[in-house]
């Protein structure tokens, strides 16, 4: 079954909710980057949030998430758009830490000595960036803090990734719940109670919960599904884009590629696709 997300309203439309199943999306990223288990969980959680944040955009708007807590994994970069396309990578995908219980220690991999930033490209001249200090490095808690401080929207963000012993992703998904203006204290209490009793996100996905069922586990029958959207790992890199980058290097650098390597190979950080250029192709990229 394809990954998808739902948008919904709950508790008399006082809560806005997003929920997503992202197992295939996260597994595709893990496979492309060769992530070890904890790196797969950290990148996967960020990709999952990115998919839900992207769904809040319109038209050709895009967001870029950057997380760097100065931990062993380095930076995590995720791009997402309004159409359900998500891509991302971690600087060091070969990272694995776990607690004595066996649970993956994402916080240790990510670190907390750094920032989480979200840059929104709304198709205007300027970009809009919100930035907050990392709190736990566990991703979900950090985005909860981001929404409260940077966007001033009280929210609850839950994400989870379950990784198999062979490093493949068994289950991934998440939710974002946002308190609408005018929500009552009774609604907030109901929400807190519900969140304290639900199963972990990765467990729900592993047990076959759909995004709808995940929200039903939180809100019961007091949830109204508004929209469905497919999500997937998709990169917009192309050989043509790399041609522009090579041309910007200048004729001397291009000639060096021809003389020393008789060609060139460009690798996309986001999807790891390799684009090859022959000496003849490089010669055509030199400016007259």
UniProtKB/TrEMBL annotation:
It holds the Pfam family HSP33. Under oxidizing conditions two disulfide bonds are formed involving the reactive cysteines. Under reducing conditions zinc is bound to the reactive cysteines and the protein is inactive. Signal peptide: none annotated. Keywords: Chaperone, Cytoplasm, Disulfide bond, Redox-active center, Zinc. Disulfide bonds join 235-237, 268-271. Transmembrane segments: none annotated. The keyword Transcription does not apply. Gene3D superfamilies: Hsp33 domain, HSP33 redox switch-like. Its main location: cytoplasm. InterPro entries: Heat_shock_Hsp33 (IPR000397), Heat_shock_Hsp33_C (IPR016154), Heat_shock_Hsp33_N (IPR016153). The keyword Chaperone applies. It is found in: Cytoplasm. Redox regulated molecular chaperone. Protects both thermally unfolding and oxidatively damaged proteins from irreversible aggregation. Plays an important role in the bacterial defense system toward oxidative stress. Belongs to the HSP33 family. This is 33 kDa chaperonin. It comes from Turicibacter faecis.
């Amino acid at each position: 079954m394809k990954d998808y997300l739902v948008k919904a309203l709950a508790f008399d439309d006082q809560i806005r909710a997003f929920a997503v199943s992202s197992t295939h999306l996260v597994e595709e990223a893990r496979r492309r980057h060769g992530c070890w288990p904890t790196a797969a969980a950290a990148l996967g959680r960020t990709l999952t949030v990115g998919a839900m944040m992207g769904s809040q955009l319109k038209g050709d708007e895009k967001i870029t998430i950057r997380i760097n807590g100065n931990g062993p994994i380095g930076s995590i970069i995720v791009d997402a758009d309004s159409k359900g396309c998500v891509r991302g990578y971690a600087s060091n995908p070969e990272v694995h830490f776990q607690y004595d219980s066996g649970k993956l220690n994402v916080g240790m991999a990510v670190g907390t000595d750094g920032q989480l930033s979200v840059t929104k490209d709304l198709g205007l001249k300027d970009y809009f960036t919100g930035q907050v200090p990392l709190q736990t490095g566990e991703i979900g808690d950090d985005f909860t803090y981001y929404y409260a401080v940077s966007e001033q929207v009280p929210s609850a963000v839950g994400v989870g990734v379950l990784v198999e012993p062979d490093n493949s992703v068994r289950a991934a998904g998440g939710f974002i719940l946002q308190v609408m203006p005018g929500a009552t204290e009774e609604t907030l209490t109901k929400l807190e109670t519900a969140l304290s009793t639900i199963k972990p996100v990765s467990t729900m996905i592993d047990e076959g919960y759909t995004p709808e069922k995940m929200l039903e586990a939180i809100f019961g029958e007091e949830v109204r599904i508004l929209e469905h959207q497919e999500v997937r790992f998709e990169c917009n890199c192309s050989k043509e884009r790399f041609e522009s980058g090579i041309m910007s290097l200048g004729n001397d650098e291009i000639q060096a590629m021809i003389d020393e390597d008789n060609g060139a190979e460009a690798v996309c950080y986001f999807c790891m696709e390799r684009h090859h250029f022959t000496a003849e192709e490089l010669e055509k990229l030199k400016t007259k």
